[in-house]
């Protein structure tokens, strides 16, 4: 059924999510140690999952510049879970984009399929070539990011960090529907990202923010710019964000 992950895909997704959760502690610890190398005064005892709580959520929009599909808009949301320890904020999120595969990528794919078919046919079969038409590719992204947050003048907050993600990719097109080509484009894969941004408290419980992000996967990579608005449900944690 189109638009739905096959059973193997759902199993792979579950394994990826479990690995993301299980690996989160080690990933966050590495992030903390990196901060220590930059001169942070906190000790490992200051970092504890018990510090995390639901503090706010945001909606965001952006634009990506991918390696294999046309640039396109993105939509997403993120959740602020607060601070794992001094200065280290944990932010899960979800995002979605959909675009058309670049002509050169389709042509390359057509060449590979053409060669495969010709290798199985008799020379006099009358086969004239492969036309895959227009191919759309979409991505549902589930991410877990860590932000190093510090205050800068004029009430701005600056942040930078890294994250892990699961990408549920779906390829569609009238010529590839139900074929092995569609199966190749339908996948669940892991990704990594680096990001940096600025936040500004426009009101007491509302912030505007912008960030730049670079996402890396095995078959796809893209730079992204995002703008968002975040509603805070609780005051700043332990005065960290107010410190100067």
Helices and strands, with pairings:
Layout: H1 7-37, E1 56-66, E2 72-80, E3 83-85, E4 88-100, H2 103-118, E5 136-151, E6 157-172, H3 180-185, E7 187-203, E8 206-216, E9 221-232
Antiparallel strand pairs: 1-2, 1-9, 2-4, 3-4, 4-5, 5-6, 6-7, 7-8, 8-9
Structural class: alpha+beta
Shape, per Cα inertia axes = elongated
Distance between the termini: 56 Å
Low-confidence stretches: 1-14, 16-29, 35-40, 239-244
Average pLDDT taken over every residue: 82
Strand arrangement, major sheet: 1-2-4-5-6-7-8-9
For the largest beta-sheet, the strand count, sense and barrel status come to: 8 strands, antiparallel, barrel
Radius of gyration: 22 Å
Number of helices: 3
Helical residues, percent: 10-25%
How many beta-strand segments?
9
User: What share of residues are in beta strands?
Assistant: 35-45%
Order of helices and strands: HEEEEHEEHEEE
Question: Which features characterize this protein?
Answer:
244 residues, alpha+beta, eight-stranded antiparallel barrel, 22% helix, elongated, disordered N terminus, disordered C terminus
Explain this structure to me?
This protein has 244 residues and is an alpha+beta fold. Helices cover 22% and strands 44% of the residues. The protein is built from three helices and nine strands, in the order αββββαββαβββ. It has helices at 7-37, 103-118, 180-185, and strands at residues 56-66, 72-80, 83-85, 88-100, 136-151, 157-172, 187-203, 206-216, 221-232. Strands 1-2-4-5-6-7-8-9 form an eight-stranded antiparallel barrel. The radius of gyration is 22 Å and the shape is elongated. The model is unreliable at 1-14, 16-29, 35-40 and 239-244 (pLDDT under 50).
